[in-house]
Design the sequence.
């Protein structure tokens, strides 16, 4: 299939491009390189250095006529969305609608959308959260991702444009940007490898559900199957505390870092964990890479980088 | 003497020199790399001027070139004749060796025996090849060209330096950055886009539009060349054999970039063109062509310091002038 992949030079997107190409698909990458790196893009993909809001994207749709839109381009920082919610809206809502309008106009047959299980459920009522959990996002980023899903539903209902929304847990792995604030694993690994002190926000007992990026890339292939639609959680169902992460990365990097606790981050969720039973049942997906193994591979990657 | 006098830059240079009252011998072989009618149309404007003499001759014609140098004493020689074009150098590489290497040697030999006061020769931004440190500076090494065209232009710089050193010929090399304007070359992007749009054909956009060029307007190029011609280079007294600066020498030899110092994204150029023509382009996105570099950007510090000039024509103004020339010329 011919797949237009936005954000294909980014952390998750570049892994998706790699597996799609390995599976024999034709990939067209759209990326403005604001976070992504040209070096991460698979050379077998056609690379368009475009912003998703760019008007001339229409000409790319007209020429390429993709079968599927896989939309991973985004403003990815929860904290930046709090500082500048309008910018977040520009990219994550306006950019998404722009792509959906073009998809409708140029006969795209399916849309796959990167949503966020971590951000759209808000403080959870029960653990792990399934797809029926109430949606109460606590950040502009979460609001925008939820809006994206609502627009997808609208296009599906009104224009028969099928979609899959992948509600990611905390994705980690090689190529994650350690300079950003999104990936605690990337940040800890990089600082411990370079001998810099890291700060644990709050008690360190807050939990996240860490899912390895190659598992995430694989569900993007499975989501292409006919008649598979709707939202899917993409997580492991396992909770990991920041303190565990800290100790684990310390032992893997042989770093002699002190465990320093700082102020808890305002508005940060305490526990977050997703049930991916639906993805298992419907798409035949389950995570394959165990946390300790994924962590090892990630640290290897950062070691090679430094 | 100006070689390549019927070419894009050569024609404009001759015209300006004649306006300033100089006596000009123009040489050109009028080959058919592109539309000969266009070359002849340029030439006919020069031939009406009384201080102009045209000689139809190829750089490769050794006897002819050498006898020309014997028959006339030139104060300044400007070598603009060449086999141009990056993409064509993958199709017909031998043409580049013939004109740009063998042909250029004939010019150097001519200068060697004729005691020319200043040799100015055309080099190219394509010598920067794989370099990506922007802006491109003449003080950087340029040892990684990615087209044979770029390689022959780099070779010209080396050949010219050796002659400058051996025979004391004051020599200046000019690296031109994507020159455009009225009477431009039909194999260049702006020309191709304009003609395609007028005929409602789609335009080919390479590297899926992710290209940047330091588009430099012809009048700025000519102003730069004229000023450089008047500034005869001296050996650089600070030049060190221990730590050799690529842009100057112990010989009377200098290299300059001539570029607009303001790279423009290809898709922006197209927007400007669309605005000028009041018409939308149909775009055909394609991968990058072999030999092409994704971006160029000229550092012009040295040019400013030595001749007090820097190209500055904004793309909006230059494109407008090009389009109005194009429409006038091809309607007539």
Sequence:
């Amino acid at each position: 299939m011919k797949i237009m992949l936005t954000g294909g030079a980014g952390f998750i997107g570049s892994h998706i491009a790699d597996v799609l190409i390995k599976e024999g698909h034709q990939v067209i990458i759209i990326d403005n390189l604001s976070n992504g790196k040209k070096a991460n893009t698979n050379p077998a993909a056609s690379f368009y250095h475009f912003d998703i809001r760019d008007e001339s994207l229409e000409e790319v749709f007209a020429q390429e006529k993709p079968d599927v839109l896989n939309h991973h381009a985004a403003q990815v920082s929860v904290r930046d969305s709090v500082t500048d919610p309008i910018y977040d809206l520009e990219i994550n809502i306006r950019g998404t609608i722009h792509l959906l309008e073009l998809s409708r106009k140029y006969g795209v047959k399916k849309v796959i959308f990167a949503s966020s299980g971590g951000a759209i459920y808000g403080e959870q009522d029960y653990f792990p959260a399934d797809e029926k959990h109430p949606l109460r996002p606590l950040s502009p980023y979460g609001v925008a991702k939820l809006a994206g899903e609502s627009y997808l539903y609208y296009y599906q209902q009104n224009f028969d444009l099928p979609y899959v929304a992948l509600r990611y847990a905390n994705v980690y792995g090689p190529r994650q940007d350690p300079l950003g604030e999104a990936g605690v694993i990337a940040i800890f690994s990089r600082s411990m490898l370079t001998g810099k002190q890291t700060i644990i926000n709050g008690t360190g007992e807050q939990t996240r559900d860490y899912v390895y990026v190659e598992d995430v890339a694989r569900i993007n292939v499975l989501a292409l199957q006919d008649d598979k639609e709707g939202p899917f959680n993409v997580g492991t169902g396992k909770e990991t505390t920041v303190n565990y992460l800290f100790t684990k990365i310390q032992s893997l990097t042989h770093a002699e870092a002190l465990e320093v606790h700082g102020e808890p981050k305002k508005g940060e969720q305490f526990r977050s964990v997703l049930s991916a039973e639906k993805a298992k049942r419907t798409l035949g997906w389950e995570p394959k890479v165990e946390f300790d193994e994924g962590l090892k591979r990630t640290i290897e990657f950062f070691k090679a980088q430094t | 003497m100006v070689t390549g006098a019927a070419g894009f830059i050569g024609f404009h240079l001759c015209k300006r020199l004649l306006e300033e009252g100089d006596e000009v011998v123009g040489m050109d072989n009028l080959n058919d790399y592109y539309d000969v009618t266009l070359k002849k149309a340029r030439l006919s404007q020069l031939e009406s001027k009384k201080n102009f003499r045209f000689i139809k001759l190829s750089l490769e014609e050794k006897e002819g070139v050498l006898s020309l140098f014997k028959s006339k004493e030139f104060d300044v020689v400007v070598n603009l004749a060449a086999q141009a074009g990056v993409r064509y150098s993958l199709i017909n590489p031998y043409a580049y060796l013939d004109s740009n290497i063998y042909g250029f040697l004939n010019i150097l030999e001519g200068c060697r025996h004729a005691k020319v006061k200043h040799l100015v020769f055309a080099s190219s931004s394509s010598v920067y090849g794989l370099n990506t440190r922007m802006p491109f500076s003449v003080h950087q090494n340029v040892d990684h060209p990615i087209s044979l065209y770029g390689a022959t232009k780099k070779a010209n710089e080396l050949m010219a330096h050796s002659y400058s050193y051996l025979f004391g010929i004051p020599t200046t090399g000019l690296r031109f950055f994507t020159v455009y304007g009225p009477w431009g070359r039909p194999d260049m992007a702006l020309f191709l886009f304009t003609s395609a749009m007028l005929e409602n054909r789609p335009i080919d956009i390479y590297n899926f539009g992710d290209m940047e060029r330091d588009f430099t307007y012809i009048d700025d190029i000519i102003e730069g060349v004229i000023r450089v011609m008047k500034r005869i280079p001296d050996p650089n007294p600070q030049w060190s054999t221990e730590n050799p600066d690529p842009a100057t020498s112990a010989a009377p030899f200098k290299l300059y970039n001539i570029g607009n110092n303001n790279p423009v994204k290809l898709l922006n150029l197209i927007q400007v063109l669309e605005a000028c023509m009041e018409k939308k382009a149909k775009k055909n996105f394609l991968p990058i062509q072999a030999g092409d570099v994704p971006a160029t950007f000229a550092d012009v510090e040295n040019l400013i310091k030595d001749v007090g000039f820097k190209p500055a024509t904004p793309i909006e103004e230059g494109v407008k002038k090009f389009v109005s020339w194009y429409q006038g010329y091809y309607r007539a």
